[in-house]
Amino acid sequence: MKQNVYFVSGIDTDAGKSYATGFLAREWNNSGKKTITQKFIQTGNVGHSEDIDLHRRIMGIPFTQEDKKGLTMPEIFSYPASPHLAARLDNRPIDFDKIKRSTQELSERYDYVLLEGAGGLMVPLTTELLTIDYIAQEQYPLIFVTSGKLGSINHTLLSLEAIQRRGITLDTVLYNLYPTVEDKTIQNDTMEFIRTYLKKNFPGTKFLLVPEISEI
């Protein structure tokens, strides 16, 4: 596999990963880098991934041939829960080989692949495999999504320690400004705190803002 797959995770289920993934894919495509997104495990859906739908709306493109073939959504489970539970309730295991083959094919067809996870870094994929361990196992560089909601500093710093401990390459931190909040006191302070923390402790990591997007 080419070294062009970036895993997208975040502080929790409501960090805005899908929103941020679609935004970054749009920006990379606009800059001439042919980019596709993949939702490696989707829960709470049947037959189609709602997160891929959101990606395409933000990217401003129709469904791709890869979407129609299921390459961008290789594993879908019906119950809206963490993958280990959703797989158990659907009475079938997650097919990690199928996921890997799909990612490999996207990697060969595109300049970049943004591989969105399910929930936060510590979400269990099986009873023995966490999302963060899957990232480390596959040696994917990480794009990490956080936000300015109350509690984000705590969740972000705990996540950064776990990332560092496992030797994962933290490529970019995306700071999500969506959804809009009227009082931006916490949002602005959190942004500066995390930005400063990264400069000191992760000097090679990029810090980018994900703006509010009105057209979705």
Automatic annotation (TrEMBL):
Substrate binds at T43. Pathway: Cofactor biosynthesis; biotin biosynthesis; biotin from 7,8-diaminononanoate: step 1/2. GO terms for cellular component: cytosol. GO terms for molecular function: ATP binding; dethiobiotin synthase activity; magnesium ion binding; protein homodimerization activity. InterPro entries: DTB_synth_BioD, P-loop_NTPase. The active site is at K39. ATP binds at D14, A15, G16, K17, S18, Y19, D51, E116, G117, A118, G119, P211, E212, I213. The keyword Metal-binding applies. Keywords: ATP-binding, Biotin biosynthesis, Cytoplasm, Ligase, Magnesium, Metal-binding, Nucleotide-binding. Mg(2+) binds at S18, D51, E116. It is an enzyme of class 6 (ligase). It is found in: Cytoplasm. Its cofactor is Mg(2+). Belongs to the dethiobiotin synthetase family. Homodimer. Catalyzes a mechanistically unusual reaction, the ATP-dependent insertion of CO2 between the N7 and N8 nitrogen atoms of 7,8-diaminopelargonic acid (DAPA, also called 7,8-diammoniononanoate) to form a ureido ring. This is ATP-dependent dethiobiotin synthetase BioD. It comes from Bacteroides faecalis.
